[in-house]
Write a structure and sequence with these properties.
This protein is of the alpha/beta class. Helix content is about 25%, strand content about 30%. Strands 2-1-3-4-15-14-13 form a seven-stranded mixed β-sheet. A four-stranded mixed β-sheet has the order 6-5-7-12.
Length: about 200
């Protein structure tokens, strides 16, 4: 199987490559259109900033290329956000694969304990959270309320394409799907056996 990771001026590539290696696969990290088109699976990883990543994609024509891909494609973290319509991070128009917007955590209050005071949400949201309302082949063999690892300051609104959700101050889309495009806000490559199962499921779709 040929696997390609989209190179787009973002980080978090090595941990994805290591996770794939644990599953017995190697991958090309590339911004070459022909290599991306030939791949059996495309992964869009990322830890970075939305506007600079979109600038990199547009400068190389990768924005249109990604939208045209027919094989299974998986966006991770910033990858999910760039698949959406618009991000509040530097007022960035994104790829519009999913018709939802990306908002910044902030100004939200955590619910108070009985008799306690309210606390402001910490941003970025960092740590382990439960997944709920799982559906679709990406979560085959993954139990409801499984824990996965998040690191992010922005989130995708809830919308009909959500195939998993979680809560941090409010409920948001933890995973999205439209046709051959899948995306997760959490980091499967850092989420232990649950994350490995999700990556395995993606490769088997």
């Amino acid at each position: 199987m040929k696997i390609a990771l989209v190179k787009y001026n973002a980080g978090n590539v090595q941990s994805v490559l290591f996770a794939l290696r644990r599953l017995g696969h190697t991958a090309d990290w590339t911004d070459d259109p022909a290599t991306l088109r030939r791949a059996d699976r495309v992964i869009f990883p990322g830890v970075g900033e939305a506007s600079s990543a979109m600038h990199y994609l547009k400068a190389r024509g990768l924005d249109e290329l990604i939208r045209s891909l027919q094989q299974p494609v998986l966006g991770i973290c910033l990858g999910l956000q760039l698949f959406c319509r618009h991000s509040e991070e530097n007022d960035t128009p994104c790829l519009r694969i999913f018709e939802c917007d990306v908002r910044r955590f902030g100004g939200l209050d955590m619910p108070a304990e009985p008799g306690g005071s309210r606390a402001v949400l910490k941003v970025p949201h960092m740590g382990w959270n439960k997944l709920r309302q799982l559906r679709g082949p990406l979560f085959s063999g993954v139990a409801e309320e499984s824990y996965v690892y998040f690191v992010h300051s922005y989130y995708a609104e809830m919308q009909p394409g959500a195939i998993a959700q979680t809560e941090y101050g409010e409920t948001f889309s933890a995973a999205l799907q439209r046709d051959n495009f899948f995306a997760v806000q959490f980091h499967p490559e850092k989420s232990g056996p649950v994350g490995q199962q999700i990556l395995k499921n993606f490769l088997n779709i």
